[in-house]
Design a protein that fits this description.
With 84 residues, this protein is mostly helical. The protein has a domain of 35 residues. It is 62% helix and 0% strand. It contains 5 helices and no strands.
Length: 84
């Protein structure tokens, strides 16, 4: 069952969205409905939307070559120094 939905937003946003939908050969209603289905689906993942902004901020913080094994060894050494 389809139901009418009224949205209020800036006129410039509406015009840009209509142009975007027109370029893709679809109505604005279909574009919005598809987007809402996408963000409300259980299968939505980061791969669809790309990395979160925080990930971009921390990328490169760790040294290259500091793999999991090296990190475990460092943590193990830290615990030995702390508790032994």
């Amino acid at each position: 069952m389809e139901t009418k939905l009224t949205l209020r937003m800036d006129e410039k946003v509406i015009q840009a969205a209509k142009a975007h939908a027109r370029k893709r050969g679809m109505s604005l209603s279909k574009l919005v409905a598809d987007y809402l289905k996408l963000i409300s689906s259980k299968t939505t993942s980061a791969s669809i939307f790309g990395p979160a902004p925080i990930l971009s901020e921390i990328t490169g913080v760790l040294q290259k070559g500091s793999g999991r094994k090296n990190s475990r060894q460092q943590y193990h050494s830290h615990l030995e120094e702390k508790y032994l």
